Amino acid sequence: QVQLVESGGGLVQPGGSLKLSCTASGFTFRNYLMSWYRQAPGKERELVANITQVTGFTHYQGSVKGRFTISRDDAKNTVYLQMNSLKPEDTAVYYCNAHLIQEYWGQGTQVTVSS
To answer: Which of the four pLDDT bands, split at 50, 70 and 90, describes residue 104?
Structure first.
């Protein structure tokens, strides 16, 4: 069955870094647009970044541009999110998303930025 398994979340101090990973199974990963979303308490889920299939073009939400980097390894069926210069407002549950015609979601991983 389809699975998206996120890992790499945790507690980090402001200014610190984390790298999230999402490993997929059950579908042809290389054909899918891959995205990271996040949802903070009391807020709607929002797109953080995505990376296209084949060409690897990337798009970032304005508040993370220059601090976060999305990448993918189709050989490993994995998408990554490198997060640098983290701020308290980056605190959220981060979700991996795969989209072509169908859409799949991971279970989420908590990122907390606090001193």
So the answer is: very high
